[in-house]
Write a structure and sequence with these properties.
single chain, alpha+beta, Structural Genomics Hypothetical 15.5 Kd Protein In mrcA-pckA Intergenic Region, Chain A, Alpha-Beta Plaits, 3 domains, nine-stranded mixed beta sheet, elongated
Length: about 240
């Protein structure tokens, strides 16, 4: 395994931060400073970061969390506001699980619903990089009156925004003012901007599915660890997969 990846999987830092540590001369292998993040290492190597030996590879975990309103999609906040990671910190401390969890993707503070937390950088990359086209489904309560067929058609064909036309969305009306939209691009506040462009500003937004994984009956603020089978389904998710309903 490459040294940069080894540090990330050992819980030292993210892959990018680990590679920066290596280039800064803060990592040694067998007592010698190594500056190449691509150096091959294994668990038999004596690897130290800032003089401290690593404990070996940590087990990858993935949690599903129903993010409540006002909670930030980040690991830490300098102003002490609640974050998705802080919601499950007590559980991790209680089990002794050595995990550097971080959110996979983001939900705005004023949005709710399904968000994943993991220490698996490779999985996070696969689920969030646009090239994999992993689908995410949202339920939006909108203003501007009842949503008509013309607005639905435009959403399905692609909406012109300031950063370009969106890819076609899968949209269905589940109430006179409630839409269910599935997208795969993940632009900043994309669903809100698409609906705003149609004259239907979003009043409430909830993510109800991430790839093959559904929010289900998980209560706001509640979370659960995914099974190995669920994680494998996430690893295989892409734009061609049947949408969760």
């Amino acid at each position: 395994m490459r040294l940069g990846k080894y540090l990330a999987h050992s819980g030292v830092a993210s892959r990018r931060a680990a590679e920066a540590m290596i280039r800064d001369g803060r990592v040694t292998v067998a007592g010698k400073i190594v500056l190449d993040p691509a150096l091959d290492v294994n668990e038999q190597c004596v690897v130290k970061a800032d003089g401290r030996p690593l404990g070996g590879l940590q087990m990858h975990v993935v949690y599903a969390l129903n993010k409540p309103l006002g909670v930030l999609s980040t690991a830490k906040d300098t102003h002490g506001r609640p974050t998705v990671v802080s919601l499950i910190a007590d559980t991790l401390a209680g089990t002794g699980e050595r995990s550097r969890l971080y959110p996979v993707g983001r939900l705005d503070a004023d949005s709710t619903g399904l968000i994943l937390l993991s220490n698996d950088g490779a999985l996070a990359h696969r689920l969030t990089h646009p090239s994999f086209e992993v689908q995410k489904t949202y339920r939006a309560r909108v203003g501007g009156g009842s949503v008509g067929e013309q607005a639905l058609r435009r959403l399905r064909e692609g909406v012109s925004l300031e950063d370009g036309t969106t890819a076609p969305a899968r949209v269905r009306r589940v109430g006179s003012d409630v839409l269910e939209l599935t997208i795969h691009e993940g632009r900043n506040r994309q669903v809100r901007r698409m609906c705003e462009a149609m004259g239907h500003p979003v009043r409430e937004l909830e993510r109800v599915a991430f790839g093959p994984l559904k929010l289900g009956d998980l209560a706001p603020g509640a979370y659960r660890r995914l099974s190995e089978r669920e994680v494998e389904r996430l690893r295989g998710s892409n734009g061609g997969q049947r949408l969760a309903r």
